[in-house]
Amino acid sequence: MAPPSTTTVAGRDLAHPAREEIRLEQVLHALADPLRLAVVRTLAASPDELSCSVFELPVSKSTSTHHFRVLRESGVIAQVYRGTAKMNALRRADLDAIFPGLLDGVLAAAAVEAERLTTD
Amino acid sequence: MAPPSTTTVAGRDLAHPAREEIRLEQVLHALADPLRLAVVRTLAASPDELSCSVFELPVSKSTSTHHFRVLRESGVIAQVYRGTAKMNALRRADLDAIFPGLLDGVLAAAAVEAERLTTD
Description:
The structure is a homodimer.
Chain A: H1 24-31, H2 34-45, E1 50-51, H3 61-74, E2 77-82, E3 85-90, H4 92-98, H5 102-119
Helix pairs in contact in A: 1-3
């Protein structure tokens, strides 16, 4: 059994699937939403972890929290509290190790899609 | 406007999105289900189109029809009637043209996933 992929803080730790618990269908489901895919694209382009508050999603706070939870519970992102901020990072190393090429394929497709929809 | 991707027969034609109507989120949603992904893997491995009856999905007929419809309406597969059989083919050329590498990435991941779950 591999150790959990994120550091946890007693009482405030958030549940993450270990690498071997990540399932393709759940990853694809997590990515199959425009807002969640936008979050993933932003995280993929950022060298640092990002606070939830950075993402100005056009939805309520609770819906936003839901989207981040779907991403975390599927294994796509890691979330950790730093003080009062909930920080987010893409689990690229885990995803690339399990499903080589998948994340890059989806990110490339998302870039194409964004370009297509802009130029329509 | 590109022509529709499938030949239609008056009165029995099934609705398909044209290539430019295919949306990434809908493709990912269609693929984010174990049964639909299994259908796609089988179609990807087949040189010929396959009848729905070839797929012995462990669900009711109506649920099976639903899964094929999701795949068709998202642009992942083409369905056409030949006599009384509904035949299915992967829209690989369309998907590869719009999102290069996406389908291959998902198929490779699905193969990994099948192997992982078998050897667990």
